[in-house]
Specification:
This protein has 178 residues and is mainly alpha-helical. The protein contains eleven helices and no strands. The mean pLDDT is 94.
């Protein structure tokens, strides 16, 4: 813990408190993730993920790793860069004992690859859309600027709420375009 915090330049966390209290550790991990994601270099990411994943409470470590995945996905230049970055982390992620935690992180990576491919110009099919989580479908419904993607979500979204968000956003985008 001390090395992880020092490596991120965080010196105001009591290491003994962090070791003893999962809430203090979780907060410290969030800060480490922020520093790590804001760095231009990705060279230390695997070692940082490995250190976080040694936490005795997998839910705490999983949450921190997911936060890093989310931040890096929003920072990369495209799906190829994210695919390469995430592939370097998968051996560490696969060390998690709980299969549900491993699967959750793998699904999140898949979701972001899907999102980034759309941002890169790919128009997904209904079958591809069905393979991403409800969370990612909602992110797309709330953030996509593509009328074609919004129409797909309106027609094929997995939940009524997703379909309604997409339908309403597509309608308002059409009005603004007129």
């Amino acid at each position: 813990m001390a090395d992880l915090l020092a490596g991120a330049g965080i010196f105001d966390v009591d290491v003994d408190d962090a070791v003893a209290d999962e809430h203090v550790r979780s907060s410290a991990y969030r800060r480490v993730v922020l520093v790590t994601a804001s760095s231009r270099s990705r060279g230390r990411d695997r070692a940082i993920v490995a250190a976080i994943l040694r936490d005795p409470i997998e839910m705490v470590s999983k949450s921190a790793v997911v936060a890093l995945v989310d931040r890096i996905a929003m920072k990369v230049t495209g799906p190829a860069e994210f695919r390469q970055w995430s592939a370097e982390l998968l051996p560490e992620i696969d060390q998690l004992k709980a299969e549900r935690h491993r699967e959750f992180i793998h699904r999140r990576v898949h979701d972001w690859l899907f999102y980034l491919s759309i941002e890169d110009g790919h128009m997904p099919t209904p079958v591809e859309l069905a393979k991403v989580t409800d969370w990612m479908q909602r992110v797309l419904a709330e953030e996509s600027t593509s009328l074609a993607v919004l129409a797909l979500l309106d027609e094929s979204g997995s939940r009524k709420k997703i379909r309604n968000i997409a339908k309403n956003r597509a309608g308002s985008r059409k009005l603004r375009a007129q």
